[in-house]
Amino acid sequence: MRKILVIAADGEQRESQLAILTREGYETIVAEIISTALDIIRRQHPDLILCGVELTGGDNFELLHALQNKPDLLAIPIILLTHNYEPLRWRQGVNLGADDCLVVPFTERNLLEAIAIRFKKQDALTHRYNILMRHTAERLNRLSHYDSLTDLPNYQLLRQRLQQATERASGGKQRVALMTLSLDRLRQINNTLGYAAGDTVLRAAARRLTGILPRSTAVARLTGNQFAIVVPAPHDHETIIAIAEEIFESLGHSFSLPGQEVFMTASIGIVMFPDDSEEISVLLRQADAALDWAKVQKSHSYRFYRPDMPVVSGDELQLETWLRYALEREEFEVWYQPKYSLSQERIVGAEALIRWQHPETGYISPARFVPLAEATGLIVPIGEWVLKTVCDQAASWLRHGQPVVAIAVNLSSVQLNQSRLAQTLQDILTLTQLPPHHLELEVTETALMQDIESAIALLEQLKALNVKIAIDDFGTGYASLGYLRQLPIDILKIDTSFVRNIHQDVKNQSIVKNVIALAHDLGLKIIAEGIETQAEMEVLKDYGCDLIQGYWVGPPMVAEKLAERL
Fold it and tell me: Domain ranges in the chain?
């Protein structure tokens, strides 16, 4: 039943209006003054208001002004009733939100038609609003579950489809195959022909996949050039292999672009439920691991997941989260492994090594978090913190008379790619007032060989600051001896693999003896790392090795312990 609020003074005219409305089946509410009416509107929210105040009255537009400040009440239709119609005042009323105006006396038909017209218009607006909201909801739902480029399900919907498939398979004791597919050369197309061309290929690839796969499969686009396919209840591995080969055959045909014909190859990783796992998140990570393995094989390769394939675990994701907060929460420490001069027979320096003491789990090995820091780029701010901490500490030792020759800091390949590395180091040296020759920078041979020309240019910038440069793990990165002659370096560090049990290994003896001779001919010092026994030390001393480090000299230790050793 529609509810109508009548605002009018008590009298015969109001009673007549109420009688008409009641006969027509409307529920009526009565208010004599505006303040009472506003309270009723807030509490009961009528469907329509008949306002019997005079257009020329002292409080004529108080109601309309009040409702202007109530957005939730503005949609209520208002019909003004007046004895004295003035066009100018009526226009002002419309501007304030009035919908119609009836001049007294008016007939019952006039009143009911005016009300019916308002309700009809309101119903139409409500209907249009509902349609709009439904369409909006449908569009939002589609945007949240479908990829806008290919119109395929996205990652969120894929998880739902995979969950549904695995639940059905569990009930029927069946398998489900999850295939992740990567278009191998999409980046080249984006770089040479533009992203519009790449999008065209992605859309065409999506159409080919949906066109050849059985209707029971679910195809989704995950990110970039990667798709996923859920195959419910495959008969055996041969069924999946046949699907993979059909995909390769379809995607192997040329893709037509404006003025250009291109060809694509694909890689596919495959994981089976419940054989490999029963957890959706684990299955997705295993499929990615199998895909990474398939990519190594190049062009149209598929690989089933095997337990020996490295999988990103939930623990690693948690570790990354912790790592992002570790620096600001001051959870890192720098430890120092002493270096021993074989000619002076004393400790003359140390290598700085980062350590992470997590407040909940305790010590976390650098072997776990350093590769993750490099992969996420966090190694850059962490590396700057290590440099600043080491320079501060070394400067403090010098001020207190400690006979430190140099402290070495490792630089990762990620740090070597930072254009501001030399300037950052200069700023740290200036801030800490550390004489540059007391700092060594260790760079692995492998990192240098990734881009040797750029590496040489960077090392020359660093060398210009008067710091010492060392090549770490020498002998493991296949560096050319010709490049060794060009590198602006001071020190070679022989890798542990060449000195371990050197007193028993004739071949390593020959290698190390010649490397030491070569380094000395080039004016370089030699450090052997990983020395654990007296016998190893004595062989290296006989060969003229300059410095050694390892557990025979001392393990990594906190700064206070190293100060005692010094």
Answer: 3-127, 155-305, 315-565
